[in-house]
Amino acid sequence: MLQLYSYFRSSAAYRVRIALALKGLPYETVPVHLLAGGGQQHGAGYRATNPQGLVPALQDGEGGAVITQSLAIIEYLDEAHAGAPLLPTDALGRARVRALAQAVACDLHPLNNLRVLRYLKHDLGVSDAQKDAWYAHWVALGLSAVEEMLARSPDTGRFCHGDAPGLADCCLVPQVFNAQRFGCPLGDYPTIARIVAECEALPAFQQAAPDRQPDAA
Amino acid sequence: MLQLYSYFRSSAAYRVRIALALKGLPYETVPVHLLAGGGQQHGAGYRATNPQGLVPALQDGEGGAVITQSLAIIEYLDEAHAGAPLLPTDALGRARVRALAQAVACDLHPLNNLRVLRYLKHDLGVSDAQKDAWYAHWVALGLSAVEEMLARSPDTGRFCHGDAPGLADCCLVPQVFNAQRFGCPLGDYPTIARIVAECEALPAFQQAAPDRQPDAA
C-alpha cells in the first residue's frame, strides 16, 4: 500500500493527493503536522524518511523506496501506473505541461511557503501587512503569467492542457486554493478561474481537498 | 537551429546550457540582459516569447515552438534528442534524479533569485547584512539536505546518479557556483564538492560556465 506523508494544508501534498485520486490509486495518509510541537517535519523520525524535512513524501509500502518532491512523485506515479495519464505523449505537449506546473511549483509557491513566511516574520521582523503584501505580490506575478500562458495557447482546453486533467491542473488548483485562503483576488485570471471550476467539479479534486483529509483540524 | 534566451549569470539558463552541451546540441545564444535598462526580461518583446519574463526560454528556430522553465526544457531536450541521456530509464531512478533537481530548483534557487533579493532590499528595506543572511540561510538549508540525499544513497556515483552526468548535476553545479559567488562556505558538503569537481572537469560543464558566454560582462 502506498503511504503518503502529508499535511492537510500543504499545497505540495495536495498536488500529490489529486494525482493519486485522478489515477485511482489507494493510499494511506501518514500525517506530518507542520505546526504541532515546532513542526513534526523537523523531527529525526521524519528526516530519516525525507532529509529535506518537507512534505510530501511517498513510500511504496513499509520499508519500501521513498520518493520526495511533489512533481517527481506525480511523474513517478504516472510512469509506474497506466491509466488516466497526467502528461501528454508528445514531447512538446509534455514540455508545456511541465512548464505550467513549474511556473507554480518553482516560481510561485516556494516564495509563499510556511517556512518563508516564518523567516520574514521572525528573522526579518516584517509587519503582518508587509508579509501579506509579499504573499500577494508573488501570487499576482505568478498567476498573471500562468493566466497568459493559458489564455494565449490553443492547447488549453477544458483543463490546462486539452480536455483531461493532468500535472498542471494538480499544481494550479492547490495554488489557487491557497491564494483564496489568503484573500488574494482572482478576478484578473478568468482562464484560471474557469479551469479551476472544471477541476473542482471532479470527485478526484474534491477528495484531495484539505478539509477532506484525515488530519484536517 | 535552437535558440536559447539566456543571461550569462542566470543559474536556470546555466542548467540548460550544461544540458545542451552534454547532449552535443548546437544552439544560438539570444542574450537577455537582466540588469540593463531595468531588465530586458520585462520588455514587451521578451514577454511575447515568455510571459513569465524569466530566462531561460528555448525556441526551436525562428517562429518555432517556445519552451520555458529550465527543467521542462532539459526534459524536452532529453526526450527529443537521443544520445547522452540525462535521466535514467527506471521509474524510481528517474524520480530520484528529478527530486534532487527539484530540491535545488523548487526549494533553494527560487528564494535567492535576483527578483527576490531586490524585493527584500527595495520593498522590505532590509539591510545588506540581512539580505546576505537570507541568502546564506536558504543555501545552507538546501545544500545540507541535498548533501544528505546524496551521501546516504547507494545510487550516488561519480555524479549525482551513477557514473554519468544528468539532470541533477545540471542543477547542482550552477547552484554551487552561485553559492560560492556569494561567499557561502561549502566545507560541510563533501559529497556535493566531490561531484561538482567531477563535473567541472568535463568540457560540457566548462563550456556552459557564465564567464564563457557571449554576453559575459
From TrEMBL, chains A, B:
GO cellular component term, pick one: cytoplasm
One Pfam family this sequence matches: GST_N_3
Keywords, alphabetical: Isomerase
Highest taxon listed in the record's lineage: Bacteria
Record-linked PROSITE patterns: GST_CTER, GST_NTER
Stretches assigned to the GST C-terminal domain: 90-217
Listed InterPro entries: Glutathione-S-Trfase_C-like, Glutathione-S-Trfase_C_sf, Glutathione_S-Trfase, Glutathione_S-Trfase_N, GST_Zeta, GST_Zeta_C, GST_Zeta_N, Thioredoxin-like_sf
NCBIfam families in the cross-refs: maiA
Recorded family membership: Belongs to the GST superfamily. Zeta family.
Name of the protein in question: Maleylacetoacetate isomerase
Source species of the chain: Melaminivora suipulveris
Lineage of source species: Bacteria, Pseudomonadati, Pseudomonadota, Betaproteobacteria, Burkholderiales
